[in-house]
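Sequence in, structure out. Go.
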Amino acid sequence: MTKDVLLPLGVIFICAAAVTVAFVLIARLYRAAMAEYRTAVDRMVKQQDQVSAQLTELTGRVAEMERILRSVD
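Output:
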């Protein structure tokens, strides 16, 4: 009778351990992926700020060129 109880309990224990290990591994992978995502987002925000600054500078230059061209006429 003891073997009749131990076998199902052993199977349940192994399944529970497998599910727990899978959950922990998935959580670690998710954390790592989110860290990479945050790094990429930070990098993109910096690049966007640089592009915005360049666009502002170029807008000023174009406005100055327009002013010069209008003064020539």
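Check: The radius of gyration is 31 Å. Residues 2-72 form the longest helix (71 residues).
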